[in-house]
Amino acid sequence: MEKPLILVTNDDGINAPGIRCLIDIMSEIGEVIVVAPDSPQSGTGHAITINSTLHCSKVTPKTSDRLEYSCSGTPADCVKLAVNELMPRKPDLCVSGINHGSNSSINVIYSGTMSAAIEAGIEGIPAIGFSILDYRWNANFLNSRKFIKKITLNALKNKMPKGVVLNVNIPAIKESEIKGIKICRQAKAYWVEEFDKRKNPLGQEYYWLTGKFVDKDKGEDTDEWALNNGFISIVPVEFDLTAHFAIKDLNEWDFK
Amino acid sequence: MEKPLILVTNDDGINAPGIRCLIDIMSEIGEVIVVAPDSPQSGTGHAITINSTLHCSKVTPKTSDRLEYSCSGTPADCVKLAVNELMPRKPDLCVSGINHGSNSSINVIYSGTMSAAIEAGIEGIPAIGFSILDYRWNANFLNSRKFIKKITLNALKNKMPKGVVLNVNIPAIKESEIKGIKICRQAKAYWVEEFDKRKNPLGQEYYWLTGKFVDKDKGEDTDEWALNNGFISIVPVEFDLTAHFAIKDLNEWDFK
């Protein structure tokens, strides 16, 4: 079998330790092309660059003949540019991450990592976003290597369900403590925001967004439950946002 | 009954004609507070500002005592700041728009207008995004006034289905030609990207993202069908992205 062609991207920027680890793992599986943002893009959501230009430089390291591109855009821009302009053919898989920090539960909505995976999904490419629950630059990614490889090989072998991408989160615990992999639903959790109000040297007010993550979802089938209990969580994520269950109710509203 | 408190925001910026029209309509219905970006944010998706500061100025016009705030952040930032810092109480409704340009089908994913509505939904506030299929600054919003009022009054009177916000798109035709309002699902359409490659004055390459919208969805229950046939479309949108139908399939993957 021909080696699969794998697009690797992320939202922490092309030099983040997380993507370097993911590139290593993917290089054991297939032919890798990297197209990633030139700077950190956390919290960028599914932003795309439509009112400005995109710059892109080949940055292949001297020690390798792997193609790597550093791009001025968002993670979703990187995928669009990779698939439509930079890659010799449509990739067999797109992986994004490993994100420094959780993208479980409602965080999927704000996640640049997942927006890259979702963008690939929209373009019909099987896609997975990987995140580890450790925000630090020097997070330990080694605990997750064998699990990431296993999930990726499964995604290549089995057919990805149609209209679905995978959101994988990994607890920041020792490899020997990881109990396994669980397929989950997104926990119904949310952020309670607090704004830290300050004054700049000119006396003008400004804010820093901070917040507290609140999970009141009691289900044992959620990603939060899995992660809190030593499992790696996989949530199948869809990009058809239609709330089909609500259509009947809305048809009873009075628009006369 | 006390007048409902309505938060108005958008992604085209606080001075866009679309939001000025929406403010007018909402002022006939309730007490309005405006918190909107200080500059255009189209295509910003669900970005939030986590690595930078937010600035916010009171810009209430001299001719009115309505509270208006211009904010340096994204549409989602505006909603977070409004609800947690600027408003006297949790609003009864959040409306976003009227967007200059369509947010139907897959465009909901890239839409700053809809990300504001979704952010409000996450915070438990009934929310609606309004968009008109005309990208021009001087788009004619008058055709949609009575429909927007009707939809808003329904959303205040009926209970919004739980975990759902509304994505309303309005065709750019005369009011007399609008056939009515249809509850729809998101059409399975997508963009085929093309990158316009150019050279800057220093000889370095850069790109402009362009693309063609492709709708191969034959359903007559989609937003695209409704809009192409003279109807206003309402898609109920959910922010639990779990693809519940895929969980069974994924449980058959081999993670041993």
Write up what this structure looks like:
- The structure is a homodimer of 256-residue chains.
- The first copy, chain A, is an alpha/beta fold.
- Chain A has one domain (5-187, 219-250): Stationary-phase Survival Protein Sure Homolog, Chain: A (3-Layer(aba) Sandwich), CATH 3.40.1210.
- Chain A is 22% helix and 29% strand.
- Chain A has a 9-stranded mixed beta sheet, sandwiched between helices.
- In chain A, strand 9 (189-199) and strand 10 (205-215) form a beta hairpin.
- In chain A, helix 1 packs across helix 4 and helix 2 runs parallel beside helix 3.
- Chains A and B meet through helix 2, helix 3, helix 4, strand 8 and strand 9 of A and helix 2, helix 3, helix 4, strand 8 and strand 9 of B.
From the N-terminal CA to the C-terminal CA of chain A, the straight-line distance is: 61 Å
| Main structural class of chain A | alpha/beta
CATH class of chain A: Alpha Beta
CATH topology-level name of chain A: Stationary-phase Survival Protein Sure Homolog, Chain: A
Indicate the multimeric state.
Answer: homodimer
Question: Which key features would you list for this structure?
Answer:
nine-stranded mixed sheet; alpha/beta; homodimer; globular; Stationary-phase Survival Protein Sure Homolog, Chain: A; two-stranded antiparallel ribbon
